[in-house]
């Protein structure tokens, strides 16, 4: 910009005072002067790049997350992110510590506390274990604790009229070892989404896979506004995924570069799980912009035998359990009937033993691997890496590597951890029932980790 | 964001102390009288207002831009950045923060050029708007730094609506008070008082103008520091007094000439 400064002399006015410019330059600290982060990239996506960083002066030895925002300058999403995070303060919402503006390359850097885990990696780890018929030891209240803290954070955002708009497992972070061990941090609010045209920015993104798995049915039917209820639907999806290790509304992915919100396959998947909505269950469905398309494309009779209780029952969640009852209230098709985060936090599920804990790992060793640094090779493969950031795709090889890489963790002290057996073993005792299983857990807490698999149930969910 | 004002950066960092404000302006007040200083801010508030209207922004966005502008110069001399550059930069930043769609760079510059040419020729004569997109973008970084990234500004409009609702929907009262809030942007009250107090101050003036004696009990029942309200009322009334005997079209060129200006890099 020095050139412009000089050019301005030809005009009537000089834009900026030289002494002011020099003074602010000298006072400004540069991110690379304060932090070490070279070669420590841990994430990338449409939002930019994230590095694991340490202070150079050693005034503390904490890990930090440094996010370099994609592109240059202050995009609207960068502005919204800075503006809102500057004001938001809640234990379950990511905390913006500082902003660095790099005037030379016009890059914007955001400094956060470092979260070692996220639900995308955690669920992936469990799925990999399941595929390899290995077990993962986690406290039996972990899913409940995770859900409670997600609801707590969202309740805070909603009571400040901030909508997340992009809730998915990858955006739910969990703190690793340290003073905030096992605490949920909600991150990456959909700052880019316009309030009045929620779907437009999707078309503006690179043609990476944009997941529709967590999108509420009203959005898929053309609802024009984001609402609190849309965030609640996504939380229901995440809850189901935590219980079963499977994305409940899993659907074939496409490279979407369209602003059309209507998505036939995703709706089909939702109806296949939930059944086709009855008029009396969702009266306003007729007012949805894409209702005519819905009527044209779908036949109720194709979904006659589908219901959430049947789906969850197949995944060993009993329809009479408190977990199922809460899930059903979160995943109501009619957005007006879906419960609020506040109501959800009052659900009996959370007063039933085991009670939610502040540390979702409840003091037990954390079985999940730390984030790996991404290499430059990965960086070349941009589309792949973006997909990895944004998606929950099955990546058998990666999963296997992770399980092997961390197999040593399983030998650690498992005094209060549960094993996670593979799905086949679990299937043997589908009739075993939840109660019995809890008794089994109590025994397991005595320290025995190996064996006894055959009496345990199939997956993640049953543990909690 | 309609969060909690008491926990906001606005309340915690940007309700300034009057004495501090006067001290920080000392450099400019060695050159300009307080009244001249206020007239210059009045002028740039007009530029922001008209720019915002031309860009079809809501009043909320225009008010936020004006507060950014005032906050910057609360900490810096007028000479640090040319206010003719900072004004559109504030509009640009506020429009992004308030999520009202990005104004394209070219549209912003074109609008600045038209507005300066058509509406402010009495100040700038034949002179064209001298800045381009790159100047605004550079300036934006300096603005954000000086605001300490505090971008959410609480405005008196929402509390005003609630108060008028409480009084019992009175459209005339609301219209008057709303305009008085707009006018208050040309005073320092947005730097010194919480927005709900400014709303009450504006209502108070509106009641006096409309001769609404019957609302005295309503004010009396408010649990609010009436000394502060009186200070706000006085600031706004002073503005109206100043306007009575002030012809901006005649005086502004002289004032702009007298205004402290940025100095270029020393020649070698």
UniProtKB/TrEMBL annotation, chain A:
Keywords: Activator, ATP-binding, Kinase, Nucleotide-binding, Nucleus, Repressor, Serine/threonine-protein kinase, Transferase
Protein kinase domain segment(s): 36-350
Low complexity bias spans: 389-406, 435-464
Signal peptide interval: none
Gene Ontology CC terms, in alphabetical order: nucleus
UniProt cross-references to Pfam families, sorted A to Z: Pkinase
Listed InterPro entries: CDK, Kinase-like_dom_sf, Prot_kinase_dom, Protein_kinase_ATP_BS, Ser/Thr_kinase_AS
Main location as per UniProt: nucleus
EC number(s) per entry: 2.7.11.22, 2.7.11.23
Region Disordered, residue ranges: 349-464
Top-rank taxon: Eukaryota
Cited SUPFAM superfamilies: Protein kinase-like (PK-like)
Binding site for ATP: 67
Catalytic reaction equation(s): L-seryl-[protein] + ATP = O-phospho-L-seryl-[protein] + ADP + H(+); [DNA-directed RNA polymerase] + ATP = phospho-[DNA-directed RNA polymerase] + ADP + H(+); L-threonyl-[protein] + ATP = O-phospho-L-threonyl-[protein] + ADP + H(+)
Cellular compartments annotated: Nucleus
GO function term, MF aspect, one: cyclin-dependent protein serine/threonine kinase activity
Family assignment from sequence similarity: Belongs to the protein kinase superfamily. CMGC Ser/Thr protein kinase family. CDC2/CDKX subfamily.
Descriptive protein name: Cyclin-dependent kinase 8
Organism (species): Parnassius mnemosyne
Lineage: Eukaryota, Metazoa, Ecdysozoa, Arthropoda, Hexapoda
TrEMBL record, chain B:
Ranges for domain Cyclin-like: 46-145, 158-238
Highest taxon listed in the record's lineage: Eukaryota
SMART domains: CYCLIN
Location of the protein in the cell: Nucleus
GO CC list: CKM complex
SUPFAM superfamilies: Cyclin-like (SSF47954)
Keyword tags: Cyclin, Nucleus, Repressor, Transcription, Transcription regulation
The family this protein is said to belong to: Belongs to the cyclin family. Cyclin C subfamily.
Protein name in UniProt: Cyclin-C
Organism for this UniProt entry: Parnassius mnemosyne (clouded apollo)
């Amino acid at each position: 910009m020095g050139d412009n400064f000089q050019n301005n002399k030809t005009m009537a006015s000089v834009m900026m005072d030289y002494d002011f410019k020099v003074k602010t330059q000298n006072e400004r600290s540069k991110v690379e002067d304060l932090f070490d982060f070279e070669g420590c990239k841990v994430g990338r996506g449409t939002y930019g790049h994230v590095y694991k960083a340490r202070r150079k002066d050693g005034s503390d030895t904490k890990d930090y997350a440094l996010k370099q925002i994609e592109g240059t300058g202050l995009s609207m999403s960068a502005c919204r992110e800075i503006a809102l995070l500057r004001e938001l303060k809640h234990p379950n919402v990511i905390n913006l510590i500082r902003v660095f503006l790099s005037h030379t390359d016009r890059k914007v850097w955001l400094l956060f506390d470092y979260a070692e885990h996220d639900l995308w990696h955690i669920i992936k780890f469990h799925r990999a274990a399941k595929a390899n018929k290995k077990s993962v030891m986690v406290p039996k209240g972990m899913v409940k604790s995770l859900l409670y803290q997600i609801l707590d954070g969202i309740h805070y955002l909603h009571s400040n009229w901030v909508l997340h708009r992009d809730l998915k497992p990858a955006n739910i972070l969990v703190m690793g070892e340290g003073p905030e061990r096992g605490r949920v941090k909600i991150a990456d609010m959909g700052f880019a989404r316009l309030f009045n045209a929620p779907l437009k920015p999707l078309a503006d993104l690179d043609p990476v896979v944009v997941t529709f798995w967590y999108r509420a049915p009203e959005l898929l039917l053309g609802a024009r506004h984001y609402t609190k209820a849309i965030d609640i639907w996504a939380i229901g999806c995440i809850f189901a995924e935590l219980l079963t290790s499977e994305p409940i509304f899993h659907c074939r992915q496409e490279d979407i570069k369209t602003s059309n919100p209507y998505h036939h396959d995703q709706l089909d998947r939702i109806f296949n799980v939930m059944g086709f909505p009855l008029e009396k269950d969702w009266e306003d469905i007729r007012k949805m912009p894409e209702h005519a398309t819905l009527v044209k494309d779908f036949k109720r009779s194709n979904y006659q035998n589908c219901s959430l209780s049947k789906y969850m029952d197949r995944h060993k969640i009993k329809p009479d359990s408190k977990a199922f009852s809460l899930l059903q209230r979160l995943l109501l098709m009619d957005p007006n009937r879906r419960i609020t985060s506040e109501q959800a936090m009052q659900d009996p599920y959370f007063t039933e033993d085991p009670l939610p804990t502040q540390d979702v790992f409840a003091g037990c060793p954390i079985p999940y691997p730390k984030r790996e640094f991404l290499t430059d090779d990965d960086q070349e493969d941009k589309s792949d890496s973006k997909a990895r950031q944004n998606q929950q795709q099955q990546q058998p090889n990666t999963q296997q590597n992770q399980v092997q890489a961390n197999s040593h963790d399983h030998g650690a002290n498992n005094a209060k951890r549960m094993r996670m057996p593979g799905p086949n073993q679990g299937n043997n005792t589908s009739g075993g029932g939840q109660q019995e299983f809890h008794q089994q857990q109590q025994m397991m807490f005595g320290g025995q980790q190996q064996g006894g698999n055959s009496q345990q149930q199939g997956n993640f969910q049953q543990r909690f | 964001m309609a969060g909690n004002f008491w926990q906001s950066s606005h309340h915690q960092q940007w309700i300034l102390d009057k004495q501090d404000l006067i001290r920080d302006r000392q450099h400019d007040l060695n050159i300009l009288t307080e009244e001249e200083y206020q007239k210059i801010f009045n002028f740039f508030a007009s530029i922001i207002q008209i720019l915002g209207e031309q860009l079809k922004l809501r009043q909320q966005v225009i008010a936020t831009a004006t507060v950014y502008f005032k906050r910057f110069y609360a900490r810096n001399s007028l000479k640090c950045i040319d206010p003719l550059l900072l004004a559109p930069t504030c509009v640009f930043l506020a429009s992004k923060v308030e999520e009202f769609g990005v104004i394209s760079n070219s549209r912003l510059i074109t609008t600045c050029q038209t507005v300066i040419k058509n509406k402010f020729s009495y100040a700038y004569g034949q002179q064209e708007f001298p800045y381009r997109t790159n100047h605004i973008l550079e300036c934006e970084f300096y603005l954000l730094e000086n605001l300490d990234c505090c971008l959410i500004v609480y405005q008196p409009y929402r509390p005003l609506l609630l108060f008028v609702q409480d009084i019992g929907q009175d459209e005339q009262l609301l219209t008057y008070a709303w305009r008085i809030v707009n006018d208050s942007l040309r005073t320092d009250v947005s730097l010194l008082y919480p927005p709900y107090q400014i709303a009450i101050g504006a209502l108070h003036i509106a009641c006096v103008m409309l001769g609404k004696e019957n609302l005295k009990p309503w004010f009396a029942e408010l649990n609010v520091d009436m000394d502060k309200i009186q200070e706000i009322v006085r600031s706004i009334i002073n503005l109206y007094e100043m306007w009575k005997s002030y012809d901006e079209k005649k005086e502004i060129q002289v004032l702009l000439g007298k205004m402290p200006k940025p100095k270029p890099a020393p020649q070698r």
